[in-house]
Amino acid sequence: MKETTMTDPLLLDQFLPAWDHEISMSQLFRAPPSEVFDAITNLDLFRLPVARVLLEARALPGRLANAAARRHGETVVPEPPTFRVRDLPARGWIPLGERPGTGLVYGVVGQPWKGTGGSPPQPPVTAETFAAFAEPGFAKLAESTVVTPYGVGGCVLTLESRVVMTDEDSRRRFRRYWQAAGPFIRLMRPTAMRALERQLHHGASRRPVP
Predict the structure, then answer these.
(1) What pLDDT score does 172 carry?
(2) pTM reported for the whole predicted model
């Protein structure tokens, strides 16, 4: 398997090369890239108190909408009981690209300024149509997880989110949404990084000394 290097083109750039809003964070870990990649993509944010509070609050409008749908006899697809990167497709995100063990990108098209994420575009957006999608009234979001080797036995983990709006009205709506939600969403990455650091340290302390 070919390892990703700092000079390799980003998968994220293939799908969202320009953006209106971006959050990124990188951290060095003294652990093998494959181990860090597996750990971060399977980290359950519901197990982290700060992250769970934020995720529960963001999911409340959708849950109220689901409750109303059930009262009217509509079928509601249950969400997974965990909140991992690997769970995103079950929550409506599109797998855009993956480099096994080193990189993963998911995307979604929606209206995050609306309580339940708004109405999805029709026809549904796919990995093949994501980059070119430009229907007014929507936001395109992409989440990237990249691990690059660093020195002997170490790596740098980069988590990045990009958002681009498809018209000026959507930009105005998203700016209002981001003023309220942005400060809390920015807490997610350092929270996840600290949890991952603890997990990797705990795992390393339990390994037998060669």
Answers:
(1) 96
(2) 0.81
